[in-house]
Structure formats: C-alpha cells, structure tokens
Write a structure and sequence with these properties.
6 helices, 3-stranded antiparallel beta sheet, 170 residues, single chain, elongated
C-alpha cells in the first residue's frame, strides 16, 4: 500500500513540477482518475499527506483548492522522478501538453469573498497573467448568495468584463 501511495504522490509532484502555475484539485483529479491510477479517496489522502509534509502548498477559496509545488517538493521530485514509469510520465506529459492552455486559463481566473466590516460581502476578482494581476476588482454585495453568483459569473464572463473596461477606459 505505501509503495502505491508513494507513486500517487510522485505523480502529483511530477505534474506540479512540469507546469509554471498551480493546479486545482479538479485538474489533478481529472488526470489521475480518468487514467484509473487510483480512486478519489486515495488521491485526496495523497494530496493531504503531501501538504502535511510541506511538499505542496494549498491555496483554498470558497470554490476551489489550488496546489503549488514547494521548494522541498521540487527537490523531492528532482531526486525521485525516475521512480515513475516512463509510460506514466508520457501520460502526464501528454495530458499537460494537450491541456496546458485550458489548465492555465482555469487557474489564472480567481475569485473569493469574505465578510467585510460593513456586514456585507466583499468579492475579490482577479485575472492573472504570468502570476501578475492583469485586473483586480472588488465588489460589495449584501448576501452570500450574491457573492457566490458574482464568483460564478466572473469565471464565465471575466474576458467580457475586461474587454468592456478596457474599451471604456482607454
């Protein structure tokens, strides 16, 4: 059991090492579960143990969790990458190559909310390019439901909003 769990952890570290942006829980799950390497519960256990060992860092919002490779995680995968079979490495490389734009675009759009001092909810929306903010927008709304609606719509319509702002401000 521990040898297979180690493989799951190495797959996750390898994936994070191959990209220059964080991956979401859903993105990592899509690859590992679709390939049938393990089940959801073992995958979540592997992610949790990697975070506990500080080999990855979690960034959690109300709507998703992003995983970043830490320095220790990068050192570990550099040392142990050869413990992952060549076919699995090729599966990972192909997945990342085929979906890189889609994966990067998903994590470059961020939104989260918190209760502010006025008793309302502040929704912070961002679009990142090369890990730098292209746009940051904070809106105040009265309810959690509206905050969640803004987050959902930001995910879908951020490009429209950005284009509209640029057209009207320049």
């Amino acid at each position: 059991m521990s040898e297979t769990m180690t493989l799951y952890k190495l797959i996750i570290l390898y994936m994070l090492d191959k990209v220059d942006f964080p991956l979401t829980n859903a993105q990592i799950s899509e690859f590992i579960l679709d390939k049938g390497y393990t089940n959801y519960f073992k995958l979540q256990q592997a992610l949790s143990e990697l975070a506990d060992a500080e080999l990855i860092r979690e960034e959690t919002t109300h709507s998703r969790t992003l995983y970043h490779l830490t320095g220790d995680g990068a050192q570990s995968i550099q040392y142990f990458w050869n413990k992952i079979s060549r076919p699995i490495q090729e599966d990972i490389d192909n997945f990342l190559r085929d979906k890189k734009y889609e994966l990067k675009n998903e994590v470059s759009v961020k939104a989260d909310y918190f209760k502010n001092t006025a008793g309302e909810y502040s929704v912070q929306c961002q679009v990142l390019e090369n890990q730098e903010p292209l746009i940051e927008l904070t809106l105040s709304v009265p309810t959690v439901g509206e905050a969640e609606s803004v987050i959902a719509n930001w995910q879908k319509k951020n490009q429209e909003v950005y284009a509209w702002l640029m057209a009207n401000l320049l």
